[in-house]
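Ticket #258: bound-state structure for magnesium ion.
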Amino acid sequence: MDVNLARIVFNKMNTLEDLDKNKLPQHIAIIMDGNGRWAKQRGKLRIFGHENGVDAVHQTVESCAKLQIPFLTLYAFSTENWKRPKNEVDTLMRLLVNVLKKELKTLNKNNIRLKTIGKTDTLPKKVHKELTEVMSKTENNSGMILTLALSYGSREEIKTAVQEIAVKVKNNIISPENIDETVINTHLYAHFLPDVDLLIRTSGECRISNFLLWQIAYAELYFIDVFWPDFRENHLVQAILSYQNRERRFGKTSEQLN
Ligand code: IPE
Ligand code: IPE
Ligand code: MG
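RESOLUTION: The complex was predicted; output attached.
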């Protein structure tokens, strides 16, 4: 049995030291799911789950920064999440403002730069203002780039890119033959991010829910049956260990890789 696989099987409390530092994913993306069900299990309102998810965000960000992961992207609010009951949306937005205010110190302490992807102009003014402030106060940090996907939907991202490219074609700035993958990528919200290496989804659901469809073309997927508020460093390590045990072939044969 592979050494790493043995660690996953036999040691449930994995730590950062168990990881091969030469084989870390460069871009980890997480669908932080299951807050509502976590709260329901405890007979509480859904928002109680969101509140308790904040700690998991804090710990995951710090662990990834410690590992010197260059890019961490968190799915915090989708374009479809606007369809939730107004009071849940309002409370989530208030929570977001509080978290941003509180976590600015953590970001600077860990040399993290904050970025966003999504239709952020649709967010309430207060959230927008706080985001702009935290982004500007962390823009000179040179460590991990933490990207929050907010009011983000991948289809909307691609649609917007197509519209922008179409306008450039119409104005003779670009010709259709020159539209390649790089051109498309530069028009996406996530143009500053490399492809995702490892995509984690908590809560046991095995779906993508409109997250980074373009960027996950060759990502390794990891689904874990733990609700987001219970996600801890050892779960993150398990996900990365699983990633480190996979052979990424990108269409080639195993023999070609060696
Ligand atoms: C994820 O948890 C947080 C957001 C989508 C904002 P959910 O709120 O989706 O929780 P479940 O999936 O209903 O349990
Ligand atoms: C995806 O979770 C969005 C976020 C985690 C922010 P959802 O809970 O909205 O996804 P579905 O509706 O179960 O697919
Ligand atoms: Mg959910």
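RESOLUTION NOTES: Residues 3-12+25-153+196-244 form a domain with the Undecaprenyl pyrophosphate synthetase fold (CATH 3.40.1180.10).
TICKET STATUS: resolved
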